[in-house]
Specification:
mainly alpha, two-stranded antiparallel sheet, 13 strands, elongated
Length: 560
């Protein structure tokens, strides 16, 4: 919103002019183009001057803070913690005074540097906006703030981020493309993973049979060969069907190579039921006995492949590792690393395009999908390097998790959470600055420390707000799915409802992913000292960087 020389209020988006009206004084209205603008508290025509920056006062309207008008004036007494000069206004100029703190202000001043009162709009501003200017953000009372303060901030941030998505719906194309690309990556790895599983299983089977053959004498092997040819006929010659089943189940392993252990009663019953089913399907008793014997040999081969049975109730002891085991482990490691790399690349690539569009919105411009894709392609080397670093870290965390079920998983979770916090702004840094992954990590850590200092605990949660808002939707979908499957008992209706629920869940995931990425871009832009568009609630964004007030003994360890 700007004021022209004729006293009219103009929209910065469409340049449409409106006459100043007292009933709208100091209020926020909406232009016909949809842009929000605020009417001045006083008639611009009565002021008789342009509301411009008073250069000798050192006030920057965009930043809401003071900065030196002449850097040659040394003097540490006037220096702020950020190393900038804080030039206060004269005590009394004989001119206008601030209606809030009654301090004299220069003629034509817009913001009172003493209290932050906006003389143009008649509203009080927070003078500690921006981490780069305030040196660490605001301080809030954690006890007095409580869950309701966090809930209020989360709701405000959700409105900001989802509001940007609503105004620029083309931004949803980026998470949609990211999801499709991730699905393609998953499907492309299904074939090599399945082939590797079959190859490893076949190799383990052959090795198990070779070990069994090496443990048997030569005459036993000859007897086994002769018995294999006659065993089905002997079983088939048995008169009683039940007795034939039991004989086939218990004697088939002994007639081949000798089972490493006795079959349990449950296994005997399963194989007997299997034989009955084969005969019912039209197979002869000899064919059924042969299939049952092969199934038993396959079961024992699998047991031998993954371990040898111990004497304590069927537990397994791991067999000594062989060179081929390390080959399979290396192959699985390469596939896992490639999968991590492709997924991280897909996520980082489309998030870069989305953040580029969000940054363009905060410059007051309308973004396009093509612009975001162009920036992502320009940052392709940096994205590839970042995906490589992320894949290495992901594999290391996975290895740590596999070392021990409980302790390893806990350590991996702690390290993963720390890595996520330290790299929170990596993709925005890559998008804006175009630096490599290590410089981006360093810049992200620096920005995080300047934003939240030593407190790594956030005072808001978009995930919590998303869960609260979407919980009724999930409850309704669950009820409809239950009604169609249990009450109506209609398979067609159940499939239709299931498909509809899948679409709703996909839409929620897309919107949530886009909103999270957009809000990350907003936080990075603000934490870096950049300005925000006129429609943004700057004070609300500044509250994201507030630190909890230290109490009791904790104040003794505070550097503030």
């Amino acid at each position: 919103m700007s004021s022209s020389a004729d006293g009219k209020v103009r929209c910065e988006h469409c340049n449409r002019a409106y006459a100043w009206q007292e009933k709208y004084a100091g209020k926020k209205v909406r232009c016909k183009c949809g842009q929000a603008l605020r009417f001045p508290a006083t008639d611009p025509a009565d002021q008789g001057m342009e509301l411009e920056l008073n250069l000798d006062s050192g006030i920057d309207l965009n930043m809401g803070t003071s900065k030196p008008a002449n850097t040659s004036h040394g003097g540490d007494a006037l220096a702020t913690p950020d190393g900038q000069l804080n030039v206060p206004p004269p005590a009394n100029l004989g001119g206008p005074t601030c209606p809030s703190c009654k301090t004299s202000v220069r003629p034509g001043a817009v913001i009172c540097v003493s209290c932050g009162f906006n003389l143009k709009e008649g509203s009080k501003l927070n003078t500690s906006v921006g981490v780069q200017m305030s040196g660490g953000g605001q301080v809030y009372d954690d006890y007095a703030d409580g869950i309701f303060g966090r809930f209020k901030r989360s709701w405000t941030f959700a409105k900001i981020s989802y509001g940007m998505i609503w105004d620029f719906k083309q931004l949803l194309i980026f998470p949609v493309c990211s999801g499709i690309a991730a699905l393609i990556v998953l499907l492309s790895f299904a074939l090599p993973v399945g082939g590797l599983v079959l190859a490893q299983a076949n190799s383990e089977m052959n090795r198990a049979q070779q070990r069994q053959a090496q443990m048997q004498p030569a005459d036993t092997q000859a007897a086994v060969t002769a018995t294999d040819a006659t065993a089905p006929n002997v079983v088939a010659a048995t008169g009683d069907a039940t007795q034939t089943t039991d004989t086939a189940v218990t004697e088939a392993p002994a007639a081949t190579k000798g089972p490493p252990r006795e079959l349990t009663e449950e296994e005997k019953a399963d194989f007997a039921q299997m034989r009955k089913g084969l005969i019912a399907e039209g197979k002869s008793e000899a064919e059924a006995d042969k299939i049952v014997a092969d199934a038993q040999k396959f079961m024992f081969a699998l047991e031998d492949a993954f371990g040898e049975a111990a004497e304590n109730g069927g537990a397994f002891e791991a067999r000594p590792a062989e060179p081929i085991d390390y080959v399979w482990l290396a192959m699985w490691g390469l596939i896992g690393f490639a999968f991590y790399f492709c997924n991280y690349f897909v996520i980082a690539f489309f998030n870069t395009g989305l953040i580029a569009c969000a940054m363009k919105i905060m410059r007051g411009e309308v973004p396009t999908v093509g612009y975001g894709m162009k920036i992502a392609m320009q940052r392709l080397p940096q994205i590839l390097a970042w995906a490589l670093v992320s894949a290495v870290v992901g594999m290391i965390l996975k290895i740590i998790e596999g070392l021990n079920d409980k302790v390893g998983r806990f350590i991996a979770w702690i390290l993963g959470a720390g890595w996520t916090i330290l790299t929170f702004f990596v993709v925005p840094v890559i998008t804006v600055e175009g630096v490599g992954p290590f410089k981006a990590i360093k810049s992200s850590v620096k920005t995080m420390k300047e934003a939240w200092g030593d407190s790594l605990r956030g005072n808001f949660s978009l995930a919590l707000m998303t869960f609260i808002v979407t919980l009724p939707i999930y409850v309704v979908m669950g009820f409809v799915l239950w009604a169609s499957a249990v009450v109506l008992q209609s398979p067609v209706m159940t499939l239709c409802v299931l498909a509809g629920c899948a679409i709703v869940v996909a839409l929620i995931s897309v919107a949530t992913s886009a909103a999270d990425t957009v809000f990350k871009a907003i936080l990075y832009s603000f934490a870096s000292g950049n300005t925000l568009p006129a429609g943004f609630d700057t004070d609300a964004v500044a509250s994201a960087f507030a630190r909890p007030r230290k109490r009791g003994l904790m104040r003794l360890f505070s550097r503030d």
